Amino acid sequence: MLMRKERRSAIRTLRGWAISVLQETGAIRECEEHGWMQDRTDPHAHQRAFDVARQEPPDGLSGTEAVAEIEDVLASIGDTCPECPPDC
Ligand SMILES: [Zn+2]
User: Fold this and answer.
1) How many CA atoms lie within 13 A of 35 on its CB side?
2) Would 65 disulfide with which of 17, 30, 53, 61, CB 3.0-4.6 Å?
3) Residues with CB under 5 A from ligand 1 (ion)
């Protein structure tokens, strides 16, 4: 039986790209315990991520669109892990 992984969601792929850029630049980090992404609220790291997006946009995207994608993902990520105790 032939199984094929379909890549029907371009948005999902783009989001994955944006998350990897944000992680590489230190703009976000993953909760070690729960795996949720957290915004480190570091404006310099945000700026670095935007620079990378503008200079090295993924295939089929302009620098401006790539920056917009980073902004989108950043807006969807909170600065705390939803599963960690609030006082930790
Ligand atoms: Zn957590």
Assistant:
1) 0
2) 61
3) 31, 33-34, 81, 83-84
